[in-house]
Design brief:
The chain is mainly alpha-helical. 47% of the residues lie in helices and 11% in strands.
């Protein structure tokens, strides 16, 4: 599931891609003032979604106090992810931003389990927060054997540890 929004310039931006077991819309469940959606959720592949309304969620929290801890864990993950993305956006060059975006997507799509990343080049570009040179960056990564593109929406990562190393995510 891609979480997207339209910018004031009229561009569609992908904020995040969610995978199996992830959730979205949690702010609407805990903040009554957030009646308006801040982003849209778009299925990138066939998906099964489970929906809770606020009444159901409040009942779950009353009956199962551990739900509060689960919600705190979800919010903690969001803050950690957003902080890392902000640091990358403010401090890294376009190539590193693209590499780290590919690493995040590799986790979501379970590349270690043999899957491919199923997103377009444009979606990677908006997620990385870069405006140009993505085609050149992808070409360079392909020449180095770090990625392989299959069609318009499939990115194969032959060696995830090599990609993480190239992205500066391993020591």
């Amino acid at each position: 599931i891609a979480i997207e929004l339209d910018t004031q310039k009229g561009e569609r931006v992908t904020l995040h891609v969610l995978g199996r077991g992830d959730c979205f819309g949690e702010l609407a469940l805990i903040n009554e003032a957030s009646g308006r959606r801040s982003a849209s959720a778009v299925a990138l592949e066939q998906s099964v979604l489970h929906q809770l309304d606020r009444h159901q969620f409040d009942q779950l929290r009353r009956n199962h106090p551990s739900m509060q801890l689960m919600l705190l864990g979800v919010l903690h993950q969001q803050v950690t992810r957003l902080t890392a993305h902000l640091v990358d956006t403010l401090t890294e060059d376009a190539r590193t931003k693209v590499l780290r975006t590919l690493c995040r997507l590799a986790d979501v799509f379970d590349v270690a389990g043999g899957n491919h990343i199923q997103v377009s080049l444009d979606r990677v570009k908006t997620m990385a927060g870069v405006t140009r040179r993505v085609t050149d960056i992808f070409r360079d990564l392909e020449v180095k054997g770090l990625i392989r593109r299959e069609g318009r929406h499939a990115i194969v990562i032959p060696d995830l540890s090599a990609l993480r190393h190239e992205a500066g995510l391993t020591r």
